[in-house]
Design brief:
252 residues, alpha+beta, Porin, 10 strands, 15% helix
């Protein structure tokens, strides 16, 4: 009666991204500490790298990210009806994806920047359905989104080669692939556009040749992503929204 889908595997490209990130981290470590004694390293960290970096009005860079994402469902009035094949449980499980993009940073004041970060994000979101007759199935939505976050970055006072910061703003996202068209109207389908509120925090680390910034960011979808199809999955849900936690590695 229903077709199960247990696709919980991460995208194959994710392994390549992990290797790239690992290689970059090793390279950074080598640049910072190659052929240096502990005393020399201490002296190097205590001096200011890129002392005039923050005087520039425009900065450019690129970013790599890993994300953990899910759909958050809101149940409809058809949820847990008296029918034998009614849905008794719907949960969105977190799956892992990755993000690649560019950075355009505009200095507004000494402590405030405006950032535009066009990115390409690869997601897989799973929804687990349990029916009254104990039947279970997983509906998987794989998608590639072009995302354009517009963020404000509030920075602390620079201390040596470190500076803490917070970010917040809005993110528009539109699906780039054709995954939605490949899915049948008997399956759970989602919209190809989303608008999210993003916020997070990070640390700027100044190296002699570039600035490296690890950042943790939270994203909450503001729109209803549910495609209203006449099937048991869509009828059981009134709304689905996106929730994502990401670790970004910025290089500027």
């Amino acid at each position: 009666m229903f077709k199960s889908n247990y696709g919980h595997k991460c995208p194959l490209h994710l392994q390549k991204v992990i290797y790239i990130i690992g290689f970059l981290l090793i390279l950074i470590h080598q640049i910072n500490g190659q052929d240096a004694s502990f005393k020399e390293r201490t002296s190097k960290w205590s001096s200011n790298n890129l002392p005039y970096y923050d005087d520039r009005r425009l900065h450019y860079g690129f970013t790599l990210g890993l994300n953990s994402t899910r759909f958050k469902p809101t149940f409809s009035k058809n949820y847990f009806s008296n029918e034998e094949d009614s849905v008794v449980s719907v949960t969105g499980t977190r799956t892992t994806g990755f993000t690649l993009g560019f950075i355009l940073n505009l200095k507004l004041t000494d402590f405030l920047d405006l950032r535009l970060l066009p990115t390409v994000a690869f997601y897989q979101r799973d929804m687990n359905f349990v029916f009254k007759n104990s039947f279970t199935t997983t509906q998987t939505t794989e998608s590639t989104f072009i995302e354009i976050p517009l963020m404000c970055k509030y920075k602390s006072q620079r201390r040596g080669n470190f500076r803490m910061y917070m970010v917040g703003g809005l993110k528009a996202a539109i699906e780039a692939g054709a995954k939605k068209k490949e899915k049948k109207d008997t399956e759970l389908r989602s919209s190809n556009f989303d608008l999210c509120i993003d916020y997070g925090f990070g640390l700027d680390i100044y190296y002699p040749l570039f600035k490296f910034s690890p950042e943790i960011r939270f994203s909450h979808g503001l729109l209803n992503m549910l495609n209203k199809d006449d099937n048991i999955y869509s009828r059981s849900i009134q709304r689905i929204s996106t929730h994502t936690i990401s670790l970004f590695l910025h290089f500027e």
